[in-house]
Specification:
- The structure is a single chain.
- By secondary structure, this protein is of the alpha/beta class.
- It has one domain: Purple Acid Phosphatase, chain A, domain 2, CATH 3.60.21.10.
- Helices cover 31% and strands 22% of the residues.
- It has eight helices and eleven strands.
- The chain has a five-stranded mixed sheet, with helices on one face. A four-stranded mixed sheet has the order 2-1-10-11.
- A hairpin with a 2-residue loop joins strand 7 and strand 8.
Length: 269
């Protein structure tokens, strides 16, 4: 069975509509979404309505959380004070724009999803604000997958797609029990982390929308990149009064407007 996994649509209806058409052409049987339906983009209600109408299993993203609970991000969630200011503007605009029934829909989204040996989260199993970057320490990466009791962990949040295989390895733990030291050895089977990128705000250097197709029979992973009319979304961003740099970044597929000193940092607030 082929499944499609989406993330980070961010109110970009043009991108979502094009990706859904591509998914249909690829003959996928199921679709999952790992959150961030809103934020940055000009059409949050249209995106949520489309996800709802298709009954796509979705877990909540950090932007979705902020719209439901009130802005809950602090300065450590942004790479700079300027980025934080723009994020606050986007949050305030989205908070005013979103329909009550769509806010209620976001409020009932789960933190994670599970389908057989597959797990789905937005950022990481520990935090929606944690970036599981491709260069993440192998032991930490393995722990994140093991904590889900799954073989494949799908995530988003970074807006940059990748597939990482964590080879089977032997782990050794020494436990002190009274005067004795007990040695525990176990083998971790092969695990994978798949970041599905971003439908609505790609940051891999091109404006094309990205998502992933996973074949549960062959375990094959395809990182899909789909061109769409991003100029239309850019124009809508300007027209709606959102920060113009969002349109500039979208048109260029920028990875970050600014880089965080430590993007792996997990907010403990």
């Amino acid at each position: 069975m082929k499944i499609a996994v989406l993330s980070c649509i961010h109110g970009n209806y043009e991108a979502l509509d094009t990706v859904l058409l591509d998914i249909d052409q690829q003959s996928c049987e199921k679709i999952f979404c790992v959150g961030d339906l809103v934020g940055y983009g000009p059409h949050p209600n249209a995106v949520i309505s489309q996800i709802r109408s298709l009954d796509i299993p979705t877990c909540i993203g950090c932007w979705d959380e902020d719209v439901v609970e009130g802005l809950n991000a602090c300065d450590c969630s942004y790479p700079s004070l300027l980025a934080e200011k723009r994020g606050l503007q986007a949050h305030e605009w989205t908070n005013k724009e979103i329909y009550p029934e769509n806010r209620e829909f976001l409020a009932q989204l789960p933190y994670s999803l599970k389908e057989g040996n597959l797990a789905f989260v937005h950022g990481s199993p520990h935090s929606n604000h944690e970036y599981l970057l491709p260069e993440l320490d192998a032991f930490v990466a393995l722990e994140r997958v093991l904590s889900t009791d799954a073989d494949v962990l799908f995530c988003g949040h970074t807006h940059v797609p990748y597939a990482r295989t964590l080879d089977a390895s032997q782990l050794q733990v020494h436990v002190v029990r009274g005067e004795k030291v007990e040695e525990i050895n176990f083998i971790s089977p092969l695990k994978r982390i798949v970041n599905v990128g971003s439908v609505g705000e790609p940051r891999h250097g091109r404006p094309n929308a990205t998502y992933v197709i996973y074949d549960t029979d062959t375990q094959d992973i395809k990182l899909r990149e789909v061109p769409y009319d991003y100029q239309k979304t850019c124009a809508a961003i300007i027209d709606k009064g959102l920060p113009a740099i969002f349109a500039w970044r979208l048109a260029r597929g920028m990875e970050y407007a600014e880089r965080a000193d430590d993007p792996t940092h997990v907010c403990t607030r």
